[in-house]
Amino acid sequence: MDPVIDSLVRTHRRALVAIARREGLGPEEALECVQDALCTFLSLPHPPHDHALAAICVMVRNAARNVRRRHHRLRIHDPIADELAAPCADAESLVSRAEDVARLRSCVAALRGPQREVVLLRLLEERSGEDVASELGLARGHVDVLVHRAKRSLRECMSR
Question: How far is it, in rounded angstroms, from Cα 118 to Cα 154?
Fold first, then answer.
């Protein structure tokens, strides 16, 4: 194996496994996805060394999604019921908040691919801009622009 790629994988192996875990896989399956992605990356005729980590991250995410699809498993999501069951909230405010959450989810779903990914990672998972940029293979400034544009789109969508 190329020493640069070997060092890269050893340094970021936890993050690569975490990518597959966030897609709903168990620890063993996540590790297999990382190994499959690495084999796929190394089998490329001219692997892109300058963006190797970003390419491997994308390959791990795709491998994890493929495993989930093959086994007909949905990605695990946090239940919204706990969030809505505030102890001192009255029924009217709960219904209003549930409507807002449903509207926001539909607005996020309406965003274009890169904007939606950035919103999910940066705003909903509260990850750092650098982390999001490295995972998606984008420049940090581009992530900031996508967040800004996505927020504007979400504000417009929510005000309708």
Answer: 13
Q: pTM higher than 0.70, yes or no?
A: no
d(CA 133, CA 111): 18
Tens digit of each residue's pLDDT, the chain (160 residues)? 567 777 877 888 888 888 888 888 888 888 888 888 888 888 888 766 778 888 888 889 999 888 877 776 555 555 555 444 445 556 677 677 778 888 888 898 899 889 999 988 888 777 888 888 998 999 989 999 999 999 999 999 988 8
In which region does residue 68 sit, left (phi positive, over 0), alpha (psi from -120 to 50) or beta (all else)? alpha
Closest CA to 28 of 75, 64, 72: 64
Tell me which DSSP letter residue 45 carries.
S
Angle of CA points 158, 129, 17, to nearest 5°: 105
Alpha helices (H) along 23-128: 27-43, 52-70, 81-84, 91-110, 113-118
Residue 128: phi and psi, rounded to 5, are -70, 155
What six digits make up the tokens of 14?
Answer: 């936890």
